[in-house]
Design goal:
Layout lengths: L2 H6 L7 H21 L5 H12 L3 E2 H8 L3 H13 L3 E5 L7 E5 L1 H10 L2 H9 L3 H21 L2
Antiparallel strand pairs: 1-3, 2-3
Length: 150
């Protein structure tokens, strides 16, 4: 490899990490006005998505699904609890385990959030097929890096 070509490797425009980082930031910024209507931050929305899919998960299961540690989750879950959207309770089977359940208010919020994925898709101006391919590629990147770091 010539010196000129190896220096191209360090150009910002050639970095996959920067493309993913800037796209991720843009997505989160695009979600912000939609989520403000629900009084949710993006990480809180992710938690709610998990609970709308499967109510009654443990904090550990939630962290595994969202790739977040308990230090990040704990304050986030406290805020959702204070908003009256979730309850953090001890498991009946094992008192050491914290289980998250939706309140009636948290369940009702799902109806208000139902159109958010469609509204986000419309902002992207790409086909459903392109969107699915992009999602698959992002999941492959995440899985490869996750597997390497285990």
């Amino acid at each position: 490899m010539t010196a000129e070509k190896s220096s191209d490797l360090l150009l910002l425009d050639n970095q996959l990490c920067f493309a993913l980082y800037s796209a991720s930031n843009a997505i989160v910024r695009a979600y912000r006005p939609l989520l403000e209507q629900l009084d949710l931050t993006y990480p809180q929305y992710l938690v709610m998505l998990v609970l709308w899919q499967q109510d009654g998960v443990s904090v550990k299961q939630l962290g595994e699904q969202l790739f977040l540690d308990s230090g990040t989750l704990t304050p986030l879950l406290k805020r959702l609890d204070m908003k009256g959207l979730v309850r953090r309770e001890r498991s009946e089977q094992d008192e050491r385990v914290r289980v998250l359940t939706l309140t009636e208010q948290g369940k009702a919020l799902k109806k208000q959030a139902a159109d958010i994925p469609l509204r986000m898709r419309d902002q992207l101006h790409i086909s459903d097929t392109q969107l699915q391919v992009l999602k698959i590629h992002c999941e492959q990147v995440q899985q490869q890096l996750h597997d390497q770091n285990d």
